[in-house]
Amino acid sequence: MIGKIAGRLEYRSTDHVLIDVRGVGYLVYVSDRVMASLPRNGEAVALYTDLLVREDLLQLFGFTTLVEKEWHRLLMSVQGIGAKASLAILGALGADGVSRAIALGDWNAVAKARGVGPKTAQRVIIELKDKAPGVMALGAGLSAATGDEVIEADPAPAPRATPQPASTAQADAMSALANLGYAPGDAASAVVQALGADPQADAGVLIRAALQLLAPKG
C-alpha cells in the first residue's frame, strides 16, 4: 500500500498530477480543492494517498490531510459512491464541510457535489451518520497532536496564548456525550450545531450547549 508520496510536481491535468519521486513518476488523482492548493510545477509537494486496486486498474488518489483521506475511504463505502464521486464531494465541501453536512443531516450540501444526486446524497447521510464521529475525532486528534497538513509552509509565529483548538474541544465534547450514553451520531450533530453558534467555545461550553440541544422537547 502506498500511503504517502513526496517529490517534485512534474505537471498537472484537470483531475490528476504527476509527481516525480527520485526519477519515478506517480500519477495521482486529486479533487478540485486539492488541485487548487498545490504548488507550482517544479516545486516540492507531498500528498497522503489511497491506492485503488482492481483487476485491470491501479489508481492513486491524493489528499493534503490524513482526515481527508479517511473521509474518502468512508465515502467510498457508501453504495453508489465511487472514487470520482468521493473526490467530487470532498472537492465541493472539504473534510470539515463533509463532517458538518453528515453531522447535521444536510444532504442538500452533499448533493451540490458534481455528479451526486439527491438520492445518493441522502444515502451518504443515512449510512455515515454513526460512522462520521470516528473520523471527526481522528481529525481533532491529528490537529491537536501535530497538525495534519502535509504540504509544508513557513512556520507562523507562536501565539502568546494557546486556547483550546476548536477541533480538540469538539472531540472532547463528543467523547463526554458518548460517555453519558448519547449515540455518536446524535452527539456529533449537537456538538456541530453548538460549535456553529460559538466557534470559539471550549469543551465545557460545547457540552452544555449540546446537552440543551439533546434535551427532550416539550
TrEMBL record:
Keywords: ATP-binding, Cytoplasm, DNA damage, DNA recombination, DNA repair, DNA-binding, Helicase, Hydrolase, Nucleotide-binding
Region annotation (Domain III) ranges: 167-218
Record GO terms (molecular function): ATP binding; four-way junction DNA binding; four-way junction helicase activity
GO BP: any one term: DNA recombination
InterPro entries: DNA_helicase_Holl-junc_RuvA_I, NA-bd_OB-fold, RuvA, RuvA_2-like, RuvA_C, RuvA_C_sf
Compartmental location: Cytoplasm
Gene3D superfamilies: 5' to 3' exonuclease, C-terminal subdomain, DNA helicase RuvA subunit, C-terminal domain, Nucleic acid-binding proteins
Holliday junction DNA helicase RuvA C-terminal domain boundaries: 169-215
Residue ranges of every copy of the DNA helicase Holliday junction RuvA type domain listed in the record: 1-62
GO cellular component: cytoplasm; Holliday junction helicase complex; Holliday junction resolvase complex
Positions of the UniProt region annotated as Domain I: 1-64
Similarity field: Belongs to the RuvA family.
NCBIfam families referenced in this protein's UniProt entry, alphabetically: ruvA
Domain notes: Has three domains with a flexible linker between the domains II and III and assumes an 'L' shape. Domain III is highly mobile and contacts RuvB.
Subunit structure comment from the entry: Homotetramer. Forms an RuvA(8)-RuvB(12)-Holliday junction (HJ) complex. HJ DNA is sandwiched between 2 RuvA tetramers; dsDNA enters through RuvA and exits via RuvB. An RuvB hexamer assembles on each DNA strand where it exits the tetramer. Each RuvB hexamer is contacted by two RuvA subunits (via domain III) on 2 adjacent RuvB subunits; this complex drives branch migration. In the full resolvosome a probable DNA-RuvA(4)-RuvB(12)-RuvC(2) complex forms which resolves the HJ.
Its biological purpose: The RuvA-RuvB-RuvC complex processes Holliday junction (HJ) DNA during genetic recombination and DNA repair, while the RuvA-RuvB complex plays an important role in the rescue of blocked DNA replication forks via replication fork reversal (RFR). RuvA specifically binds to HJ cruciform DNA, conferring on it an open structure. The RuvB hexamer acts as an ATP-dependent pump, pulling dsDNA into and through the RuvAB complex. HJ branch migration allows RuvC to scan DNA until it finds its consensus sequence, where it cleaves and resolves the cruciform DNA.
Name of the molecule in the record: Holliday junction branch migration complex subunit RuvA
Organism: Yoonia vestfoldensis SKA53
